[in-house]
């Protein structure tokens, strides 16, 4: 009746995003609950046989979409997604899905991104003199971390370092640093200080 697929990569998440997959959050993904979802969908539409059901853990969402603090999911929370192309008359589910807590995956991702961006913009990013420094990522991370701590942002410093050590590339690590600090040079900071003397 259905086949379970565990989602672990950004590519798999992107496929669900492009499909605007029908998604249920916080469901125990055992056979009994998944059968209930399948039966509910079948009341409105024909479905692919067997129906591919994509299981996503909160941890995978947090890591791939950089969700933090109260915007992050519990690591073990489960999201259950079904691609819209596997539901023949998906438009018939547009209204009934609200009764059972169904949402479109792209809406979930976009709303999380808006909340995450609002959190960053609520706090002024401190200026951090990284231009002209040794480009070793651990050196840059250390300078950025000290800058955050000097500005009373100990929690953000820890969060940033955790994300950088889990990041997959140098470019991704640099992007994370720029999420937390305004990258600048020592000269620019000194000029700003002179203006305020």
Please provide a written account of the structure.
By secondary structure, the chain is an alpha/beta fold. It folds into 2 domains: 2-118, no CATH class; 124-195, no CATH class. The chain is 49% helix and 16% strand. It has 8 helices and 7 strands, in the order E-H-E-H-E-H-E-E-H-E-H-H-H-E-H. It has a 5-stranded mixed beta sheet. Strands 6-7 form a two-stranded parallel sheet. The N and C termini lie far apart (72 Å).
Low-confidence residue ranges: none
Number of domains: 2
Number of helices: 8
Tell me the fraction of residues in β-strands, as a range: 15-25%
Short description:
Helix content is 49%, strand content 16%.
From the structure above, extract its key features.
single chain; 197 residues; alpha/beta; 2 domains; two-stranded parallel sheet; 8 helices; 7 strands
Task: Set down the secondary structure blueprint.
Blueprint: E1 2-7, H1 10-19, E2 22-25, H2 31-42, E3 51-57, H3 58-65, E4 78-82, E5 102-104, H4 105-122, E6 127-129, H5 137-150, H6 154-166, H7 170-180, E7 182-184, H8 186-195
